[in-house]
């Protein structure tokens, strides 16, 4: 069985803890590798490597850091197909979706390539006579990242490029479910010429995360994952005086007004609800149908669902792959039953899909007449189950979003500019789409939700990422009047 190691000091290091976990190909249900799970001592080794590297790395010139970042970017571009293949092999997402993930990872590396611009400070001359004041942004030291299974290539790139561009060194703890893509990207990072220790990867579970949260040499931690763990990570890291940003789960609503383009709305709902098997934190989970749009919209969504091809992600005909594990697939399927028992109408039942293999597949499901008291509405399902909630007015739709526990993304479909503008203001979420179902910001803006979708006061990547990975140092300088200097500067004198 293939063994997946850690990466410390630019070298692969076999696990020594004796603890391992299986890695599966979700499309076949077969175990494909064994992953080492780090002990506290192994995490300490990675942090020590990052700490040793920091002293020099934080002083490397902007010019050199920029060159290395460009080399890294080029290597990731050159190896995009291999990264995507690793994503499909362990996550299950279809090849086109995997390629899209790699493209968005590259976008974040490209943002970091502009580090010379991002790290410009600010300066005031003559704050007082002979006094100038300026602010520079300094790195923090060793920073860590803990990432989820659903974007194993992109989410680490929300963190690592900006952090190291700012002069920090990094310890990454990727998801234990699909670790090969992030490990390969880290290999490319080393190949690009970054010094040993600037990026280390420890494979692991709660033991590794807890050690990063209480390690005295870890200055900051970026987390992306489910809400309960995000909250735990935020509270524990903050209590240990670390800077923490912790992004959590979601329940994203898509409001469709009666004047919306039905075809555009239905296409968007289907791709946003079922793309990547619904395992996206920005997936649409609830369509809020306002007024008489509901019947034609549900019909149009159903027609499109029947045409979806579900299968192994390596098959170019597949539009949706399997779920990440057998247990998760069964949990998602249980919501169809729970919704029906609570009174929802099951328009399409994904459990009835004929998929002939042993992978962790589930067909796509559509539940109509869902109400806010049902578990299918209240819980983050994280699978290919779309709920339709029917309301009479726009205000009821906006209130549903406001009352929801989460506030990651929210979208509206309408042709009415006034209604769209009103929604921009009302939508109680961090990222809002107007006729765009998944409004993930481009890499030069920043990503983050509100309410239980994020803990900490800085969102991730883009300008806020630079802010998170640096701290200001403000310098106030006074120099004597040059006319009185002991060095002859050639100033005219009065005598
Ligand atoms: P998860 O919370 O189970 O795991 C995330 C990370 O935390 C993993 O690296 C895991 O090893 C670690 N972890 C798990 N249990 C832990 C514990 N008890 N203590 C310490 N660390 C622990 O999430 P997941 O299932 O990998 O990912 C799916 C979740 O991530 C969904 O809820 C999804 O909405 C969310 N997500 C959010 C965003 C966002 O930007 N807000 C992006 C992607 C995914």
In short:
With 495 residues, the chain is α/β, with parallel strands linked by helices. It has 16 helices and 23 strands.
Number of domains: 2
What is the number of beta strands?
A: 23
Identify low-pLDDT runs. Answer: none
- Measured as a percent range, the helix fraction is 25-40%
Number of helices in the DSSP assignment: 16
The pLDDT mean sits at 97
What is the makeup of the main sheet? 7 strands, mixed
What is the overall silhouette?
A: globular
Protein structure class? alpha/beta
Spatial strand order of the main sheet? 15-16-17-14-13-19-20
Which ligands appear in the coordinates?
nicotinamide-adenine-dinucleotide
Q: Tell me the CATH architecture of the largest domain.
A: 3-Layer(aba) Sandwich
The CATH topology assignment of the largest domain is: Aldehyde Dehydrogenase, Chain A, domain 1
Percentage of β-strand residues: 15-25%
Tell me the span between the first and last alpha carbons: 89 Å
- Name the CATH superfamily assignment of the largest domain: Aldehyde Dehydrogenase, Chain A, domain 1
CATH class of the largest domain: Alpha Beta
Which radius of gyration do the C-alpha atoms yield? 25 Å
Task: Kindly describe this structure.
This protein is an alpha/beta fold. It has two domains: 2-248 and 453-476, Aldehyde Dehydrogenase, Chain A, domain 1 (3-Layer(aba) Sandwich); 252-434, Aldehyde Dehydrogenase, Chain A, domain 2 (3-Layer(aba) Sandwich). It is 38% helix and 23% strand. The strands form six sheets. The chain has a seven-stranded mixed sheet with strand order 15-16-17-14-13-19-20, with helices on both faces. Strands 10-9-8-11-12-22 form a six-stranded mixed sheet, with helices on both faces. Strand 11 (218-224), helix 9 (227-239) and strand 12 (243-247) form a beta-alpha-beta unit. Helix 3 crosses helix 4 (95-113), helix 3 runs antiparallel to helix 7 (180-191) and helix 4 (95-113) runs parallel beside helix 6 (154-165). The chain is globular. The model has no long low-confidence stretch (mean pLDDT 97). Residues 146-151, 155, 173, 175-176, 205-206, 209, 224-226, 229, 247-250, 281, 380, 382, 408, 449, 453 line the site of nicotinamide-adenine-dinucleotide.
